[in-house]
Amino acid sequence: MAEAVVSVVLESVRDFTIQEAKFLSGVSRQVEAAQTELEFMQGFLKDADARQGQDTRVQICVAKIRDAAYDLEDIIETYGLKVDSKKKKRGLKNVLKRFACIFKEGVDVHMIAAEIENITTKISALRSNLQSYNIKEIRDRDSGGGESSLQLHERLRRSYSHVVERDVVGLESNVEELVVHLVKDENRHQVVSVWGMGGLGKTTLARKVYHHKKVRQHFLSFAWVCISQRFQVRNVWERILIELTSATKEPKQEIKDMTDDEIAKKLFCVMEEMRCLVILDDIWSIETWNLLKVAFPNVETESTILLTTRNQAVASLPNRNVFLHKLQPLNENESWELLVKKAIPARAEIDLGMYIKKKDLGMKMLQHCKGLPLAIIVLAGVLARKNSIREWVRVYENVREYINRGIGHEEEYEGVSRVLALSYDDLPYYLKPCFLYLSYYPEDCIISVSTLTKLWVAEGLIFLRQQGHGSEKTMEDIARDCLSELVERCLVQVGTSGSTGTIKDCRIHDLIRDMCLLKAKDESFLQINYSLQENTSSVTAQASQLGKIRRLAIYVDEKADRLVSSRDETNGHVRSLLFFGLREWRPKSEKGLLSPLKDFKVLRVLKVEGLRARRVELPSEIGNMVHLRFLSVRRSEIKTFPSSLGNLVCLQTLDFRVSSYIDMVIPNVIKKMKQLRHLYLPWNYRAKGKLELSTLGHLQTLHNLSSEYCDLKDVGRLTNLRKLKIRVLGSLQNLEEILKSTSSTLNRIRSLIVKNDTNSGEEQAMQIVSSCPGIYKLTLDGPIAELPKELHNYPNLTKLVLWSCGLKEDQMGILEKLPNLTNLKLFEKPFEENTKILVFSRGGFPSLEFLHVSRMDQITELRVEKGAMPRLCQLCIQFCSGLTTLPDGLRYLIYLKELTIRWMCRELHRRIEEDGEDFYKIQHVPCLLIGEPLD
Fold it and tell me: pTM for the full model?
């Protein structure tokens, strides 16, 4: 990962020197020399990264290179920020003080220049060391160096068509589905792709299909090739052609004597003329396919290619007629069946009582496998040698180690982590740190994509150079592209998606996380501390790791008596500090709880969310942490907004959504944070005068803009604003005139939340909505009797949330005409209190897919007419105590896949039971989620 670190640092230094060149004039020569040395170093790091596991000297050298790169970045940025700060202050000083300041600045320049030169010399010496260890310079990212552990690993994992596994479980339906697509004569597919994460059994499935009786009868010629990560195109073509033509000695030699063009043409003709099945096992990248495809027919033929891959981009192959088959994990019963076949082959010889105990232990251990066949086989390989219950208990106590590392039977099975690590090794350099960042999060954690992408940007892992030339994507857009690529490579799982198709949250498989943690430790990427007490050192989890601690995650539990260890020598190097578990933690002492944060001099990311201590203040020293890009104290009970926060001129994300009951005074210092991209203000706050926000030209998100304490005219200068939550407090003077002057900005708003906290602001709230015709998402919270009449003409509106609006009953007519609305949420009296019946008319809501109805106690009847909501696939009804029956029209919703009923009256719950009067209305729905009734 040193290649990734050096590349990221180079990008960061380039960006900083371009943006802040005027502040680096005194050290520009030294900075340029350091950049040049890092560029030279890049060529050696690909080979060095691959060789770390073979040579401890290389591993130590790589660790020192990472540290030197990070130190260089810190020094350059610190100096630039100091010079910037001094020049701003100089205008306030008299002439004598001004000369003193210039003299001191000159001393600083000399010292900084010397430090940069020292680091440059160190990097140059480290490069010489690498060369003396026989590390080769590799400029072509795809070319290979010397023999590496990766190449050896590839040879060990090479698949062969003649090896047919016994004891295969859970693939029967997969085999049958693929066979149908391979042997059919009409609507055939040129390519059949099997896609899934490592260890799911893609190769096993391909072998079963390859040897299936119907497949053997249908095709005339067969070829199987395993594609390594360091394959040669010529060799692959040769092997396929030799197998398809069953070439003997002389024809083989003729094939070997052909030129590349001749062999590609010959293979093309053979597949065009004969009915061939070619298996390409384990293709890693779309570039691999692009190199191979010129020898495969791109016209309609009777030949088919079946490929297996971990990469969705490969599986989906543009410009080819492809059938995509995604392989799923085994269920609980299948997992146990596979474990029994591998670990307990002679069940009849086992005492029944022992078998029951082994099954109980086995089912508990299988929870760690999460249905991954490779993990189950590795576990079974260990257990097959263990006969007694005591031995099974010992394996259970360390089951994760056995599964991940494959300890105890290395001669037969690899550990799961090593197999899954191939997916990590195949990542391009810019994705590796993004993936390792996921190791921050606890097991089974639901990861907010919005937060994750902001963290990646703040850490400097995302650069505008990653986008195509001429693109208008933001860094957050590029970060989402990186996440999508990790999803396509089966390293990240999608949780839920938004109304516009974007990923809202994600997670990682437990075994992927274990591999991620191992890689993060090996690469000194971050350290995790699980508890902090006075008598323990903060360096508890990874004391033996190489390199300085740059990123720190602290999992706080009930044993902890503080947040961070003060006076720890590692604190001065930490760039990122994230806390988890604060919502469940109650500190013994709240005094000075956050004071040790001042020791983190180069911190870029600070995430202290959910801190429930009642007398905690954010120390004023936080203003000295000038490197901060990301600061979040969301859901914490912090009562002050220090004016020193204005010093954080690099801040990109400020999330101050503290507990809602806190009434906070905010000084007018946010205007100084000119790099802000995302600003989340508290729910309750006051200001002395108006908060000035017009200087925040990079702002994309503005949450809780107060009409009372902010000047709405400032919004007009926020030309990058895309998400706005505005709180209407009191009467707004000259609103129409203000909205006209800000129209160019409001036209760009994509997500709008309007909270009306007055009884007289209905019209003004609607004026704001009317000024944002480009919105995709709209939330209206508070009294609003009527919707804008032009709402149905909003071309992009896909999601609408109505909360306590008190709309007139006839407003349903406007809602149901929204042509592109896919998501509608109705909460807590969205209509007038006397509205008893909610009607979904025939032809209404033509595009609606998700409907959520909650806390509408006044509703006594729901009506769904035939032809209403024809595309509805998810419906949730909860906390509607007045409803005693479900609408008959639900049976017309043929696309309804999921129905959730929770916290409704007991009468309704009784009626929707399988023998109840209303069950016929919902019996066609595949997924019924019925929760507890109201008491």
Answer: 0.80
